Structures are given as structure tokens and as C-alpha cells.
Amino acid sequence: MAMSAAGGRRTSGGLRAVAAAASVLAIIAASWGGYRLFASPSCSSTVRLTVAAAREIVPAVQSTATQWLDTTPKVNGKCVAVDVAAVESADVAAAIAGQHKVVLPGVGQASAKTKVPDVWIPDSGTWLQRLRGAGKDLVPTDAPSVGRSPVVLAMPQPLASTLGWPNKKLTWADLLPKLTADTKLRTGIVDPNRDASGTSGLLALAAAAGAAGGTSGQATTVAALRALATGRSTLRDDLLAKFPRATDAASLTSSVAAAPLSEQAVIAYNNGQPPVPLAAMFVDPAPLPLDYPFAVLPGVSGDQAGAARALLVTLAGDPYRDRLAQVGIRAADGSAGNGFVATKGVPLTPSPAVNPPDPQLVDKVLSTWSAVTLPGRMLAVIDVSGSMAEQVPTAGNATREQVTVEAARKGLTLFDDSWAIGLWTFSTQLDGATDYKENVPIGLMANQRQDLLNSLGGIQPKIGGGTALYDTVLAAYKTVQSGWDPSRINSIVLFTDGKNEDPQGLSLDQLTAELKKIMDPNRPIQIIAIGIGNAVSEAELQQITNTIGGGTFLAPDPTKIGEIFLRGISLRSSGPR
Asked: Residue 2 above 50 pLDDT?
């Protein structure tokens, strides 16, 4: 929908008037979809500003910008033209990451049609946090909020009433047993790697599950994530379509019964007058709300930055707050504008501020989600050379081998019985003249979980053994390739604390040449190389992972292997399958 903004009244001619004035209006690039707001025809020069915003907030931003442009604003004597486009936050995040040649795990690559804007209003500041984790200069540190929508637990109202809604205030600790153990309560979530309300709900649930600490906490966390995954969707609309369309028992039990969503999504859903309205249940502690940060991206000109600041000023005050209310979004301070219609049991007063989570916590929870929910076929290859007997002071003087084995053992608890896992160990001449040994062949966890645990428990370093890295990598790759499974993410996870020490074997150049010969782009295999301690040759590992695909991760402190393992596993989601 195109509108004339500064220097005259809006006409009733619609598209015909726009076409007639095309020669004098400053039209922003036609490749950008959305709402185009035009500068005055009398302007000799124009500052053009592209704004990409979360779809639900676009009407409020667009109408406020229209009113502002009607006042003929200028920056350094130049008129202003603004293009507001509704773009999925995950797509813009992927485009920004791609522009800087980095990848956000789980998000994937952006479509060629997605352009990096001058101003970005994603639905949540967690997108900015994740991008800062990939590169500190990718997005600004100062991005004021221009809206707010609490993240709630959405449930069909008949089911919510059985839990005390709308009068009873529930906690995540109250809900956790029901979400993980009640077979009648089917849970769902929008992929938290691509949806901020999914991320927020996942963080809240994971915090409640992990409160027990230790092995019990991890088991509860995994159970919670698997429960959410049963009804997961890639898109929000797809998840909403899984809610019941009737109140009979069969419909209620076969449909999604609980999912973290924004209050705005629940309001919009109920506005469609569905057969079974949703309850927006506020759960303590409150998840991180959607906060719609106004981010002026690096690379804009001084005039564009000035126009962006002026636009930000207009996104305040009662008129804008009332426009937010019309689309079910609260003001940045949590208050509700005129016309805001909350669902039953939802407070209209501002909720307490929620501190942003630690970016490392976000990374860890999303990595755990990817490890738990993405089906995999993996070969774990563990270094047992003599240097793995070195003690680790930060681990109570346990050996590197013991720390690595414990990380692998904990990693197995993340994988359900549908995973296919195998285990190798390697050192020079480990099995006769062979530098590697198949401890457990690749097979379903349902059939060999205990075999894997038993084999891990028996791993010991070979005193005096060297690191036979290159021959082992080639053999491992061929093994994974020979049984390649198109229904799974096929990968190798390599744990090593050194560089190649096998003069009788392949050189690095020979290894990469052999890998290039046998690689099949239609049957991709990723290698996650985890370097342990300070003697690792990062350059060697990177050359291998760059050739095959995957990533290299270093753990100078071996006690961090578990965290790094999760990060490596999550990388699988961003690569080809």
C-alpha cells in the first residue's frame, strides 16, 4: 500500500494517483516489499531509510511513520523517505550474519531476496545477542525498545480452566511435571532457533528443569525439551493450526494443548473467533518478553542515522502506544494503550522488567535443543594417545582422557533411542598396525546404549602412543560415508589433544586430496573437531573441517569440553543434510 506523506494531503486516487506522480516521488527500491512512504515532490534531495520490522508491529510503525512524514521532516535540509517492510526476524538475522560471513546455528542461510535494512526492528533483543555472539560489531549495542509483548503459555481455555485459570497463578515448577509426564497434555513450540517466543519459553522451561542440578537436572531438561519437540513447528501459523478446533475429548487430546507464544499471538488468534479460544497463562518466573528493539545497523550514513533517530522519537507517546494496542502489543514499558483487549486473566498493568539472559546461557540452551531434537547418525572418535594421560588441575587432577570420556558419557544422555551412534578410539598402532579401533559400530541407541557406556568406561590412554590423526580421519569418513543415511544428519565428532604424530601415515595434503576425491555433495558429512588442551594444532584441524564441512572448536581448559560438544552438535542444524 503506497502513501504520499510530506508536502500535501493524501489523495483518494489510490494506486492511480501514485502512478501519476511517479515521476516526482522519491520511490525506494522496488525490490523491497512492504509500505513505501514518500518524501515531498518538491524535494531536490532525499534521505532514504529502509526499515525491516517484525510482521505484527509493522501496522503501528507504518501508520506512525506516515503521520510523521506528513509534517515534511528534513535532515540537514534533505527530505525523508521511509520504506517499512514486514520481514521475519530470523531471515534478517541470517542476512546480517551472511553479510559478515558467519552463521547462526539453527537459523540457516538467508534467501537472496532478504536485504539488510538500515533499521531493524526484530521481535526480540535475543536476536541482537545471538548476532553479537557471532561478531561484536554486527549489530549496535544500543537498541531501545519500541514495544512489548509478554511470552505466555498458550492453552485451549477448557484445558487451562482445569489448571485453575484464570484465577490461579502458576509457576514453571508446577507445570513441569504436567508438560513432561502427562500423556494427555501434548506440548508444542515454534522452533526456538528461529522464533523468539520459542526461545524465551525454552529458556524459562529449561531453567525450571535445571533447578534440580546435576544428573537429575539434565535428565529433566532433556525430558522437557523432548516433550516440547513432539508438537514443534517451523512457523508460528503452523503451530497455531495444531490447536484444537473442537471441545470434544478426542480433539483436545490429539491437538497441541500448551505452547509458549507471545501475548500478541494469542490475542490475534482469538480475534479470529476460533471454535476453541486460547488462554494466555502468565507463568512465574516470567519468561523474557518480546521487546522489539529499534536497531540502527552499522554502515548507514550520517543523514540516515539522523533520520532514524527522528523516526525513533515518533515511536513514543500516546498516539503510537494506541496504535500498538490495536495490534495487541503493549508499549515498551509494559503499559497498554487505548483499545488494548487482553485475554481473560491477563493483567493490564505493566509486568516487572525481566533481565536479559546471559548470551552464553542462550547459546547453551539452543545447542541442547538442537542436540536433543535433530535426528543424527554420528561416529565419535576419541584420542587415546599418551598425552591424554596428562592431569587437568581444574578437574581435580583427573586425566584429559577421563574428562573427555565423562563429557562423551553425558552427551549420550541427550540422544534418544532413534539416534545412531558409533565409537572409535585412536593412537599410533593401536590395534596391531592399525591406528584406530572400532569399539562399537554405528548402530541405533535403542540397541546399544549400554554397549556404548560400557566401552566408554573402559577407555584408557596408550602410554607412549602418538596421535595418528590423518589416517584415522580418512578411515572414519569412509565408514560414515559407507552407511550414509538420508533421513539423518551424518557427522563425525573428533576429540584430540594433539597434532598428527604418525610419520608412516598420510600427510595433511594427502589427506585433504583423498577427502576431496571421495566427497559427494549429495551425501554431506560434517566433522566436528574438538581440540583439547594447549598442544592442539588448530591449523591442522581447521584445514580438515574446511575441506569436509563442519567446525573446529578449542577447549584449552578440558573441563569445558561438554559445553563445546553442545556447540559443535548444534552446528549440524545449519549445514546440509
From this structure: no
Enclosing domain of residue 139 = 2-148+292-326
Does residue 407 lie within any of the structural domains?
yes
Question: Residues 7, 137: one domain?
Answer: yes
d(C-alpha 475, C-alpha 9), whole Å: 73
- Asked whether residue 332 is assigned to any structural domain, the reply reads no
Q: What is the pLDDT of residue 295?
A: 97
Beta strand spans in 237-375 (E): 259-262, 278-281, 283-284, 295-296
C-alpha cell at 222: 532433556
Residues 573 and 374 sit within 8 Å (Cβ to Cβ): yes
pLDDT of amino acid 251: 84
Q: Considering all CA atoms of the chain, what is the largest pairwise distance in Å, rounded to the nearest integer?
A: 88
Q: Are 327 and 60 in contact (CB under 8 A)?
A: yes
Alpha carbon distance 294, 533 (integer Å): 42
Locate the DSSP E strands across 35-156: 35-38, 46-53, 74-75, 78-86, 119-121, 151-156
> Rounded to whole angstroms, how far apart are CA atoms 455 and 408?
11
* The predicted structure's pLDDT at residue 571: 62
Task: Give the confidence band of 241 by pLDDT, cuts at 50, 70, 90.
Answer: very high
Q: Residue 403: how many CA atoms within 13 Å on its side-chain side?
A: 29
- In this structure, what C-alpha cell is assigned to residue 510? 594427502
Which residues does 162 contact at the CB level (< 8 Å), separation at least 6?
none
CATH of the domain at 427: 3.40.50.410
Give the mean model confidence (pLDDT) for residues 375-394.
93
**Phi-psi sector, 310: left (phi>0), alpha (psi -120 to 50), beta:** alpha
383: left (phi over 0), alpha (psi -120 to 50) or beta: beta
Write down the pLDDT at residue 22: 31
Q: Which three cell numbers stand for residue 75?
A: 535532515
Q: How many domains, in total, are found in the chain?
A: 3
